[in-house]
Specification:
single chain, about 55 residues, alpha+beta, Alpha-Beta Plaits, two-stranded antiparallel ribbon, 4 strands, about 20% helix
């Protein structure tokens, strides 16, 4: 998963079903918790999140 230039709106955190995403000073993704469901990618209003292998 890749996150670039996040401005910290928190939408991805709210929709993550496994709690894999946190935002403190920057976005942190817990790779062990992430199931790559894509909800965060769809929620990001700026299109800044990319799940491995996906294209927008």
């Amino acid at each position: 998963m890749e996150v670039e230039n996040c401005y910290g709106c928190g939408g991805c955190v709210a929709v993550c079903p496994t709690g894999a995403i946190t935002i403190i000073e920057e976005v942190e993704i817990d790779a062990e918790k992430c199931v790559k469901c894509g909800r965060c990618e769809l929620m990001c209003p700026a299109g800044l999140i990319r799940i491995d292998g996906s294209q927008r």
